[in-house]
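Lay summary

Proteins are chains of building blocks that fold into shapes. Our project writes down both the chain and a compact code for its shape. Here are two examples, one after the other.
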Amino acid sequence: MRAYHSARVPKPRDSVLQTYSARIASSADWLAQGLAVAAVGVGAWVGMEAAAVTAAGVLPCLALATMQRRALRRAEQERDLLAEATEALPGRLAIFTPDRVLIHANASYRAQHAEAIAAARGGPVRYDDLMRMTVVRTMFPDLSDPTAPAAIAAELARRIATHENTKQGSFDRVIPSGKWMRVVKRQLSGGRIMGYATDITAVKAHEALLAEAAEKARSLLESAPVGIWELDADGRTRSANARLGRLFPNGIVPSSLATAGLRRAFPDDPEGPLGFPVGREVEVGMPLASGGEGRLLVAASPWLVGGESVVLTIIDITPLKQAQAQAEHLAEHDPLTGLANRARFRAALEAIALEGAEGGALLLIDLDNFKATNDRYGHAAGDAMLIAVAARMGEGIRPGDVCCRLGGDEFAIIAPRTDEQGARAIAARLQAHLRESVCFQGIELGIAASIGIAVSPDHGRTADELQRAADLALYGVKQAGRNAALVFHPALREAVDRRETLRDALIAALNENEFHLVFQPQREVGTQRMVGAEALLRWHSSRLGRDVPPSELFPVASEARLLHAIDAWVLEEALRQLAIWRDQPGAPPVVAINASVLSLRDPGYADRVAGALLRHGVAPATLEIEIPEDLAARDIAPIEATLARLRAIGVLLALDDFGGGLSSLQHVVRLPVQRLKLDRSIVAGLDRSPGHRAVLRATVALARGMGIEVLAEGVETEAEAFAIRREGCTVIQGWLTGRPERADVLVPPLAISALRA
């Protein structure tokens, strides 16, 4: 391959020497003679005839010839050095003529195409032949494929076009082996084309690693939960992640810090980048599109790259600030109504207690029958009522007064610097504002409120004393009938003290078994036969030293949440007595007990009754449970399952005090009862009121049609008994048939002794 990388210098010395010797001999110009010798290139090497040159011109010509010989030697050395250098190049270097004939190639290129060069057998090597063999070897080794010739021709045409496109300059490409090559093309003089290809696979791999690292860095920047903002020394934006743009109202990263609209709440740090302190976070404000102000937390890096840039890390803390504000609000406000809560109530109450003589007033408000609304229409209705009440209370108070919701349906108003008269005026306004009903989903919900009032310092000098006095006044309103306002007076405290004493005694009575039962007989009107008896609770308190009537006992038991325990005791004692009376002549075949609202609402009550019957060995049909009339009228749904379970067990059910309150015949149809007990209010007017007789007549007719027995309660005279019998009611209970007696009086021991004999 020497012919492809070195030039041949022709040396026809003899003919040239002869020609130039003649010219030298005839020349009078010694410089021209010297140039002629230099052009010959042999100088003193040739044997010249002495007569051919004159003695005057030979020496200068010889000197010039020597200099030219040395220059040519240096040129040949440089040529060889250049050839050696191209041979040592790691890439592939080749030069082609305009008609694509190879005229120079380095060792790397020759090694790559050794087979094609050898095939030329010393003749010209064409680019087309080189590429054809390369394409076949690397891309289409299976020439049996019928599509191969066309594909080879197309690939060869593409490569030739690329070779001749000298405008391409340089490009990177992947060769079939998978390596990356960088090709540099240059057009030389005479239309010749030089190409140099070097392996950049490692470079590409490194670039791929750098690109991957850059992508990871970008991914980290974009996925970071903070805005990242690079600014130059003048505060102009260099780069930013997408989250930063989302922090600003228009979703676009500002062009500079100056145009961002950030409001700093801290003094500029002269040592810090762009005035931000380094090493700590600072809070800044930012206008929101909604018109409010957002809050951002900013941390600045030190100056980077010799003070050319700084990176700000920005977190949007607006939701956190809003949550903090909401938490602070909720710490002192009720979440449903927005009124002050119990914590703020206490602080305001202590404040008016400290006012001394100027004092203030406390009004405690309870909504009457709110629980009934909740139970009947659901909690959504109850919430709607509470929200409406809160709004109306706000309309009824003065500026500076504090309206609070203490919980449930309990509200309070604290009115600083207000006397009793002013407190009464506030209460009157509240009553007026609350008088109008609340409309909920087309349902009119009536509102009524009981208000207890206490005034400082007259009714208490501390917050606890004031709240206690207002509580007593509120309790007094409820005892008097509700839906009114009452100012505290000392007699209220005395009454409550009595009730607390009674409550303590009641708790002790349960533990010390101070209760006992008495039984009032139920008889047929005509025969006077005892068909049953009602068990009634009695209590003689050892602590109080007196009998406590049911009218005192049960309200206190309800407040003390002892009705469950009392119902359980009555059930056990009644069944114990039924077991004693079993099969005894003269004993009532059925014993009726009263069940409280709380017990009937308890899903486990029926199972406890069944367990007690089994434990005492008493037949279920000998026990009758009386349902309170007011519960049946307003709260049937929650007790239906319990009543159905009791009937399934076999226990008898009776509706107590029918006609004395809110119950009606439609409730009788819904309830699985076997007996109606007419209220005393109907019985008392039978002998003189046609209306009462008509009610009784209709009730008896309906009950008979449904297979339900009617019993008249509270019968005290023969005239009442006669009227009852005339209207079709045959069973009565009352003082006429017998007063409530202990078991041993109702069924005398003598009868028991005779039975044993």
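And here is the second example, written the same way.
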Amino acid sequence: MTEQPKELYNLKDTIKIPLKITTLTDISDLFTLNLICNGLETEVYKEYLFLESGEETERKPSIPLIESFIGRTTGTCKIKATLGEETHLTREFTISDFIKIELKDQQTEVKPGEEFAIELEAIKENGGLVNGFMEITIIGLNHTGDLFMTNTIKNGYGYETLKFPASTKANQYLISINVSEKDTEGKTTNKGFIDYNIKVLQVPTSLEIILDNFKVEPDTSAKIKTVLHDQTGEPMDASSFVTIKNSKEEIIQEINYPTNEFLDVPITYKEPAAEWTIIAESENFTTESLFEIIEKARVDTIILNKTLVIINTGNVFYNNTIKVEIANSSLDVYVKLDVDESKKYLLSAPDGNYEIGIITEEGDNQVVEGVSLTGKIISIKEASEGAIRIIRHPISWLFILAILSFVVFTIYKKGYRRSFFGHINIPFAKKLKAGKRTLLKKNSLLTTNNKAELTLSLKGNKQNASLVCMKVKNLKEIQSKKSNAEETLQKIVGSAEEKKAAIYENQENIFFLISPVKTKTFSNERAALELAQKIEEILKEHNQKFQEKIEAGISVNLGTIVAKQEGEILKFMSMGTLITTAKKIAAISEGEILLGAKMKDKLASNTKTQKEEKDGTEYYSIKEIKNPDKHKKFISNFLKRLEGDKKEEKK
């Protein structure tokens, strides 16, 4: 063999083996060449030779590496030459069918419907340039499975442009590229493949406004959600700019708000019935929608002493009948009120304590127990302001007080020594005697130096106030026997006083009013939340320690009041439904803190809440309170002050 094979061949190549045959004797025999690869022999050349002694001949056999000639033979190989009994072997060499593929400027992200290119170089293992085909498959593109396309490769270079359908779902997709060469018979010789991932991006295609309800009642919230749809209609996470306009095209609210989340737009209790417009913008899309504020007839009722106060808290003129039940008598009150207008009615009945039921035509029921009435017959009359002043400040009360003072003095002289303070703890009783504290109301368990009184009419400062309401659901049981519950409730009052809260007690409800007139600041919402947290903590601590439990609910609300400080007492008049809503939400609470809608909006940066509804009352439960370190510091400082007070008392 005058020349050895190369070290590496690819299928479709040709191996040339130059041979020189010489002999010293006459030869007449078969000459063969066999290709040996991985232990398998394939005959690739055969010739019958006739040579005389001393004769010399040359041969240049060619071995085409194609399937029809050598089969699918690859791997480490040798060529064996045989003449009669004599054999010669070439050195080892490799036959390969591998094609190396290299992608150029590979694109990894693409928008649906946007054209992109696949550019590649394909080189055989022996260094030769590929002339063949490339097959591109995008796997899992649609319900049929794949997208398939082919193109040619010339001199080792392949190029193809393609695009995903416009409705392709945003996802990662696998692109598989197969490159091959074929022989003259169309059978595959060399081959190679490469896979890579490409991401189809999510692109916006439309913007939608979704309303929880197209008809919204006053004193609730319109729930608005913007949805930015992608190429498949799926929602996208983005930001939208929302504008709310009233029927006069006045902008009520403008806000950047995340898509796919409901935005609560509070509607005041007296907002007139009208259509409001919502305009949403996101990712160069703009859309509009409407919702309607409907008419709502509604009144709130309050009983103070012998006076029934009826307030129009709806958004339309009120012209209905209200039924008032006293004992076994049912009285109809014909009420006509403008929005926000109120009227007062005097109640009378034979001397005694009564349960009074109030039923409106709108289906609202209220029962007030333990109302002390006087008179000869059961009746109800509309009262003028003059009549109210007479009842509030009659000269006859001076005479009655004089008689009561004489009775008390007489009993005292006879030796009646029962404590005037009932169940009040001794330290607080001492303060009361010293004139520093007063009972929250007649027969109350609690004292304060910061008392508030609800009044029917008042000229004072109109301002927004934060209101914490604690409803003690088992107050009658607590009042009926001496227990540690009284001390715990008084401790809560002390915590409220530290927050400069004015305190008002009404039936089972204790209200802690934090208002600018007392705190000298207009931002009292955080202080109200901290007070509610402290109340919750004190109640939990009590119920873990003592057998006599305190069953209480806690609400935190925000509303408008008219307030005026008169001596040691803060007199206030509630506007709208502040007091009523606070009581309803506190009644729902089972010890946890619940927020009203307006307070929820004010505390949005401090809390994470969830909207809920029960018995027609909407409220917000707290899922997370942000800035916990500040909260811990507040509690720590409070406890330190409390310990200091205890040490002082011991001294």
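What can we say about the second shape? The first strand starts at residue 8 and ends at 10.
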